[in-house]
Task: structure prediction
Amino acid sequence: MSYPTLFTTPGVRAFAEAVDAERQRQLAKFGEQHHPDLSGDATSQCDAREMFDQWAQNYRAINAGTFDPGDQDRCLDWTGILLEEVYEALAESDVARLRAELVQVAAVCAAWITDLDSRTTQPNPVVAYSAGARTLRCPRCRPNPLGSEWQPLTADDLEHGGICTSCGVDVLIGAQQ
Ligand SMILES: [Mg+2]
Ligand SMILES: [Zn+2]
Result:
């Protein structure tokens, strides 16, 4: 499936594609859905939104670090950031403001997922070791133990490729297998 290039923020395209796929699963399972924003009579809706507004205020204070000034280990976390936006959305009765808050919820989800994905990105792997310009070894032929004269190299260090001076393998091709 191809998508037009509309996204400027790193990670948002991958997020949108994942949301699109999930929406397809939801539509297959539930069809198009229409529900009230909040059920119950006017008084109970008003009470519920006041409670959500109070929780939003609490999370704003937690995230700003002012909720409990005596807490020495306070730390901004994604749970607090998302809950602040969720409760702000739930506290809204105005449709335009509710919509704007739901966009903020989605944007925090995108940011959180981008952060999760950044933790699992593999660092540039070591493909060879060198001890001076004329001596290159693939990981299989590296001396063991590795003396301090041997420098680990990644593919970025080997712009012009590299041949193991022990076994003759092309270390960049070896790294892809
Ligand atoms: Mg908000
Ligand atoms: Zn080798």
